[in-house]
Amino acid sequence: MSNLYGWLKEWKRKEDMSSVFDLKIKVKPEHIDVLGHVNNVVYVQWMQDVASAHIETLGVGLDQYLEMKHAMVAVEHHVQYRKAAMLDDDIILRTWLYEINALYSFRQYAFFNAKDRSLLFTGNTKWACIEIASGRPKRMSPTFIQAYQPIDPEMDPFDLSSII
């Protein structure tokens, strides 16, 4: 992974921080397909990008993966495209964890148009913990389990009222 989110390493997680994570991006020309809207594959890349940014803020990003010799890898994606995003749109990429067990974490995504708050995309990913050297499944370390806390069931992750 590039150092695209390197700035996040300097950011300190606050104790009262929500388990919902937002990343705001702007649609660029390279995101657009021949139909004039964001290509479907780009949304899956954005899922990876926002998940990576989120784990960096949780203190268990790529550097920690390498140090601990195990990592979380995507094993299953489900996506639903609801509305097209267009060139120069500002997009809110939102993600949260909703279930954790010894081997897997389950992450949800919702992408919104920042201007009109319309829902563009929803998706979820099943992530598996593996040993990097062998690629075999491994139980999550206490470090992962402590950092990867699922969303509070009382929270509504589709509520954008906290975003300016």
From TrEMBL:
A single GO molecular function term of this UniProt record: fatty acyl-CoA hydrolase activity
Keyword annotations from UniProtKB, A to Z: Hydrolase
SUPFAM superfamilies: Thioesterase/thiol ester dehydrase-isomerase
Superkingdom of this protein's organism: Bacteria
Pfam families found in the cross-reference section: 4HBT_2 (PF13279)
Protein name (Swiss-Prot/TrEMBL): Acyl-CoA thioesterase
The organism of origin for this protein: Acinetobacter guillouiae
